[in-house]
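fyi for ur records
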Amino acid sequence: MNWWRVLGLISGTSMDGVDVAAAELRLDGDTLELRPLGSTTVPYPPDLHRDLLAALPPGGCSAAELCRLDTLVGQHFAAAAGVGLELADGRADLVASLGQTLYHWVEDGRARGTLQIGQPAWIAEATGLPVVSDLRARDVAAGGHGAPLAGVLDALWLADEPGPGVALNIGGIANITVVGGERPLAYDTGPGNALIDLAAARATGRPQDTDGALAASGAVRSDLLEVLLADDYYRQAPPKSTGKERFNAAYLDRALARAGTGITDADLLATLTELTARTIADACRAEGAVRVVASGGGVRNPVLLATLRRQLDVPVLVSDELGLPADSKEALLTALLGFLTWHGTSGNTPGTTGAAGPRLLGSITPGAGPLRMPAPADHQPTRLRVQPGDTA
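which gave:
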């Protein structure tokens, strides 16, 4: 029942920087306990942020550019791990990195491959700690989508809550986990902030609609919303996954070209906010949700959250209300995944990703010394208890 101190690192589909969280975790029988120690975001330098966005489809990315980005992102993750060590009072046992997704290859409804960059050797070299990374690929190789991996945390965390409940994460892409339903299930519902951020950047030069101000000043354009909702992704059966390789600038431009004229920036933001809320709400209703617990950057957009609550007739909570910080949930998820791999337990929930069965996830890069792993856990955890900690 030793406590292990783990740093979790991830940069989501919004690509604004590296979210880092420090946490203590331990296994007590089939119960996993998690104590947050602190979290923050380390923004990408403007040039690196620009180059990452340029490498996304429909842009091109040569082998030389891919190598350069993999190195620079790895070095930035290493710097973020240094910040994480400060949050952990200078001591940690392990780093887990979900890296930066650059491409998620989905064809005919099946995930064929996934690419996360951010070379873990830079993290190991900078911290001297072992690093668990490349956490999605094994699930894909086992027939899953490699996303959303949040299903494993959500299923443990909400195991004792009334259901069916939905854990919702609104990042660049929005995803849900259904807990307490007929079967474990998780999938991407569609764009979260991805199209909103893109339209805001075009309108204001800043890649976010701060406090939903632009959306609040506009009106939903039904002609554009109809075009956007016609996307067949929303009618595909789960499990399913998507990303910015689909919901990107070219996608938005095609939709605008098919809609009517005279769409103002404010109306565009109002319509995209409605799209995100509508597609999330449709998915939650389809799963019979009796409660929705939301996290991710989108919960800091009051207009989006209010629109979602208006679409649903069940309570919509923010995860902070249940003890899990909304802003750092994905970084804490990463720490949890690293901990599970380190202890020889599976990190995927097959029913949520579509994988053929439970799998140990990731690859391990040794730290400064010999690799000394603990004996494999005797039990696969069945629930997660979040202990009081520093949620800053």
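The chain has a mean pLDDT of 94. thats all i got for now
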